[in-house]
Automatic annotation (TrEMBL):
Pfam families given in the database record: Annexin
GO BP of this protein: response to cold; response to heat; response to salt stress; response to water deprivation
Binding site for Ca(2+): G25, G27, E67, I250, A292, E294
UniProt name for this protein: Annexin
Key words of the record: Annexin, Calcium, Calcium/phospholipid-binding, Metal-binding, Repeat
Gene Ontology molecular function terms on file: calcium ion binding; calcium-dependent phospholipid binding; phosphatidylserine binding
Annotated GO CC locations: cytoplasm; plasma membrane
Organism superkingdom: Eukaryota
């Protein structure tokens, strides 16, 4: 969604020099930093970071952390990271919290491609010197642990093909498991952690056809089913899922900048345009307008830049 500078206009050396100038003197020129990084694509940001390292022998991210603060610093730092490294940071941050937001793990495990998920796990291991699965197992318990470790450990088939016979069988299995008196989550976890997205969507569709409602309507309360519900929503329709995350982040009594930044930063170069259209359709207000209404200052300016709502 960002307004990208064309290759003819782009100079990583000039960008690096201008960012350095913005960090010198009595105060930081946040607007200059936003006007540069908020309008550079992934490849351009990587070149700016390399140029900054080469010229000043300093990591651009470390410079930004020293000069910026709060929500702005976090959002710009996430934006500047490579996607796999960014996801590794997001996963580690949430697992360090006393009350982890499992949606972060679900998004990484269920929406990223198999190759992207593998890259995230490699980045996590390189950065934190232990595996994502290890930290996830240490931060969760019981069936939530089995479910999240299962989907994070998986390397799913990524094609569009599916087996309708298997889908019918596993829709029945899921129904029996959910409604069984002696509830056993093993089959649910097996299906969710091994089947491809196309196969799972076929199963969920057949479940609805047979039983007359979405599978998530049958879930009772509790952490496990809340996690399972978010996972299925993620798999079924990622764009609709992200539109709901944005609505929740914006409309809560206390706005959730972490969730807002995460969705905007991770989807800006993927499907943010579609997510924005869904948000507008369901909320009768654009994401741009909602952000402008709820936030102020440099953080708002940066988020609007990623949304493509500014005119810079």
């Amino acid at each position: 969604m960002t307004t990208i500078i064309s290759p003819k206009q782009f100079s990583p050396v000039e960008d690096a020099e201008n960012i350095k100038k913005a960090c010198q003197g009595w105060g930081t020129d946040e607007k200059t930093i936003i006007s540069i990084l908020g309008h550079r694509n992934l490849f351009q940001r990587k070149l700016v970071r390399l140029a900054f390292q080469e010229i000043y022998h300093q990591d651009l991210l470390q410079q930004l952390k020293c000069e910026l603060s709060g929500n702005l610093e976090r959002a710009i730092s996430l934006w500047t990271l490579d996607p796999a490294d960014r996801d590794a940071v997001l996963a580690n941050e949430t697992l360090q919290k006393s009350n982890p937001d499992y949606r972060v793990i679900i998004e990484i495990a269920c929406i990223r491609s198999p190759e992207d998920l593998l890259a995230v796990k490699r980045a996590y291991k390189f950065r934190y010197k232990h595996s994502l699965e290890e930290d996830l197992a240490s931060s969760t318990t019981a069936d939530v642990r089995k479910l999240l470790v299962g989907v994070t450990s998986a390397y799913r088939y990524d094609g569009d093909e599916f087996d309708e016979t298997v889908a019918q069988s596993e829709a029945s299995t899921l129904h029996q498991e959910i409604h069984g008196k002696a509830f056993n989550n093993e089959e649910v976890i097996r299906i969710l952690s091994t089947r491809s997205q196309a196969q799972l969507n076929a199963t969920f569709n057949i479940y609805k056809d047979i039983y007359g409602h979405s599978i998530t309507k049958d879930f009772p309360g509790g952490d496990y089913f809340s996690t399972l519900r978010n996972m299925i929503r993620c798999i079924r329709d990622p764009k609709k899922y992200f539109a709901k995350v944005l609505r929740s982040a914006i409309n809560m009594e206390e706005t959730n900048e972490d969730a807002l930044s995460r969705v905007i930063v991770t989807r800006a170069e993927k499907d943010l345009k579609d997510i924005k259209e869904l948000y507008l359709k369901r909320n009768n207000i654009s994401v741009d307008e909602a952000v402008a209404r709820e936030w102020s200052g440099d953080y708002k300016t940066f988020i609007l830049a990623l949304l493509g709502a500014d005119q810079n």
